[in-house]
Design brief:
The protein is an alpha/beta fold and 204 residues long. Helices cover 22% and strands 20% of the residues. It folds into two domains: 144 residues, 3-Layer(aba) Sandwich (Alpha/beta knot), CATH 3.40.1280.30; 49 residues, no CATH class. The structure holds S-adenosylmethionine (SAM). S-adenosylmethionine (SAM) binds next to strand 5 and helix 6.
Length: 204
């Protein structure tokens, strides 16, 4: 597929790479590959062991340098996806920015605003609406807006889906997800079936 020219950068802010983050990054890498875009995981510690599955995806690059070093000369072409930004991402931002920067942080409830670590670096920020998304969802939505030219409000979302593990145990995921073609939230590594998908608090 022809390159979209877009780069999605996730600045890795957690000390280790947990299984869940690895699944999220793998989803971003595969979707970037399919879209002809690039995915860069930056600020990795020197000792970081890049998982084989990621290494095998040509769109993926592992970087020990931070995003400021990588974009020292083109800071204005980088957009930080920031839940506290004053304006929402719009399709026109695809013309303004070449690279989209995300915090490599697992979501938390309530959010602890760890994206503030990236905000300090001075990149222009855009919000993806008022609800916290997982990192892979944030990249997916950004791609739909800047590459697919879909306005943020027209993306189909599922908020706070409840996953049932068995008859007695379930958990409500405190995040917003993109609704897949099958009507279920897109969640890496989780097989969401009608039997384990419970009540959704909101269908957009
Ligand atoms: C799981 S979120 C981390 C949120 C974290 N709890 C915090 O408070 O910063 C991971 C990344 O996805 C992006 N993100 C998630 N939801 C967003 C939203 N509603 N608007 C803009 N960016 C968002 C941000 O880049 C964020 O650093």
């Amino acid at each position: 597929m022809a390159s979209t020219g877009k780069t999605y950068i996730v600045e890795h802010l957690d000390p280790e790479l947990g299984t869940w983050s690895e699944l999220e990054y793998l989803a971003v890498a595969r979707e970037s590959q399919d879209a002809g875009a690039r995915f860069c995981l930056s600020s990795l510690p020197q000792t970081f062991q890049v998982p084989e599955a990621l290494k095998n995806i040509p769109a993926f690059t592992a970087e020990t340098r931070s995003v400021e070093e990588l974009y020292a000369r083109d800071k204005s072409r980088v957009c930080l996806l920031d839940p506290a930004a004053a304006s929402d991402l719009a399709p026109e931002d695809g013309d303004k920015f070449d690279a989209f920067l995300f915090g490599g942080i697992l979501g938390d409830d309530p959010p602890r605003d760890r994206t503030s670590e990236l905000r300090k670096k001075g990149f222009e920020g855009r919000r993806l609406g008022p609800v916290q998304m997982t990192t892979d969802t944030a990249v997916r939505v950004t791609r739909l807006v800047v590459e697919g030219k879909t306005p943020l409000k027209e993306v189909s979302y599922l908020d706070h889906p409840e996953l049932k593990f068995n008859e007695h145990e379930s958990t409500q995921m405190p995040f917003r997800y993109v609704k897949g073609d099958d009507g279920k939230p897109i969640m890496p590594g989780v097989s969401v079936t009608s039997s384990n998908l419970g009540h959704q608090t909101h269908w957009a």
